[in-house]
Specification:
heterodimer, A: mainly beta, 7-stranded mixed beta sheet, 11 strands, B: 115 residues, 6-stranded mixed beta sheet, 4-stranded antiparallel beta sheet, 12 strands
């Protein structure tokens, strides 16, 4: 069974440009999460999809970030326009259920560098 | 609100010895889960072990065990018989089991196993 995959693995863009990150969850996982780790700090939650619906987007930092999950399969996270403080590693995770004792399976992350 | 504190930015251990990685937490959720993830240099986040707040026994998974002390709000990870491949970043995380499915992470501990 394939794990969570993310594309690209690394992106370097200039301030003001747009970047789109993609996440493919494990097949059959309705729950998809985005997290990010900025500047060696703790990993922070961004948002949670259940199928194509946003269950919780309270962690999104501002309106320059837009997440979508059309059709309830893969998800994209767009940053427009990118700022220097957006640099970090963006992780995607998925799970089959969302309550009780279960783990979230993480992808390898996308390292975003904004110059 | 939930908070995870990992006070050891870096730890060193000799191969074949045991090591304890500290984690303390704070939450108002009456029921919660505690997780440890490993992140090797390749970047992927690997789930290691889970402890539920009402579990009577400390969780164990092979060489990993979780020293859960509820009154002290601590969930330390113990790795026995360290191997060179254990060198990685280790993250402690928690999730309130009745208040949503987001994970809250600590800042991580970088473990180095010396030959």
């Amino acid at each position: 069974e394939a794990g969570v995959t993310q594309f690209p693995s690394h992106s370097v863009i200039e301030k003001g440009q747009t970047v789109t990150l993609r996440c493919d969850p494990i097949s059959g996982h309705d729950n998809l999460y985005w997290y990010r780790r900025v500047m060696g700090k703790e990993i922070k939650f961004l948002l949670h999809f259940v199928k194509e619906s946003k269950q919780d987007e309270s962690g999104m930092p501002n309106n320059r970030f837009l997440a979508e999950r059309t059709g309830g399969t893969y998800s994209t996270l767009k940053v427009q326009p990118a700022e220097l403080e957006d640099s970090g590693v963006y992780f995607c995770a998925s799970s089959q259920i969302q309550t009780g004792a279960y783990e979230q399976y993480f992808g390898p992350g996308t390292r975003l560098t904004v110059t | 609100a939930q908070k995870i504190t990992q006070t050891q930015p870096g730890m060193f251990v000799q191969e074949k010895e045991a090591v304890t990685l500290d984690c303390t937490y704070d939450t108002s959720d009456p029921s919660y889960g505690l997780f440890w993830y490993k992140q090797p240099s390749s970047g992927e986040m690997i789930f290691l072990i889970y402890q539920g707040s009402y579990d009577q026994q400390n969780a164990t998974e092979g060489r990993y065990s979780l020293n859960f002390q509820k009154a002290r709000k601590s969930a330390n990870l113990v790795i026995s018989a360290s191997q060179l491949g254990d060198s990685a970043m280790y993250f402690c995380a928690m999730r309130g089991l009745t208040s949503g499915s987001r994970l809250t992470f600590g800042e991580g501990t970088q473990l180095t196993v010396n030959p």
